[in-house]
Amino acid sequence: MINRVLGLFSHDIGVDLGTANTLVYVAGKGILIREPSVVARHKKTKEVLAIGTTAKKMVGRTPATIEAIRPLRDGVISDFDATYAMLSYYIKKVHESGTIIPKIPRPKIVIGIPSGVTEVERRAVAEAAIAAGAREAHLIEEPMAAAIGAGINIEDSTGSFIVDVGGGTTEIGLISLGGLVVGRSIRTAGDEMDEAIIAYARLKYSLLLGQPTAENVKISIGSAYPSEKEKFFVVRGRDLETGLPKSIKFSSDEVREALSSVLLEICLNIKETIESAPPELISDVMDTGIIMAGGGANLPGIDRLISEITNMPVYISDDPLTCVVRGCGKVLEDKNLLKRLKVKSGFN
Question: Element (H or E) spanning 260, and its range?
């Protein structure tokens, strides 16, 4: 009864609690928040100084007394207090914006989580949401959320293949009749691409780059497949031999070479998932194709590379970065769908 009353005075939300970005969908309003999953705080007092975009600008630039951290690593919580602070901030922000009279911040929350997380990791996410002010916390697996957000009819008997390349994990799933028939979650994704660029610059040019710079290189000139026109990007870092500042001009060919091992691992895992799937469903996927979601799907040429290795058609979903949060939003607004898809966390 209390929950029903609170539901009238609060905004229910769907959350894509990602390693790189956090997106928040508000029932009846759409996606209102798209922010980096970064928290800046004082090291000793643990006082939170900034969250989201402002905090991300501090990464690699903080004095000894301040730390700018990412509360999630490989899709799971690595710092509970920072995750709690981030969720609390976004819940309050949603309930204070756009209303004459601020609503009570006690929402029902649906959160997308990697399919490969343990029971302890699931419980940690639910606990953080409850501690942040949620009256109910429901978890659904990211491949299912991404598929729903991409417009796939998950209830159909026809098999659908979804690949969600995020910041911390790549979720691979073959879906039929409302369930995950075959799936795997690998901790190789956007973060590993950034690390590969950092390692490449260190080995080839003796240049030390920061993670934000590597991410900029990936977004600006990164690709998975050769293109007709080569692109260039000037990066600045520290020379490991002299310790002094140094600039180099990265080419798109070099970045592709740096990313090749990470992309190959993702492709091989997709191929192995296909090999372990029932023949009838693979026949369906040959017709419907592999659907790409997640921020990693925006890497130019990744669809061509996966198609070449798997011998299957590959399609990029509309606005792939928001697929998971849009899926969470649709589940949030459909009680029957939520009942079927939610995974046990100890709080539902």
Answer: helix 252-275
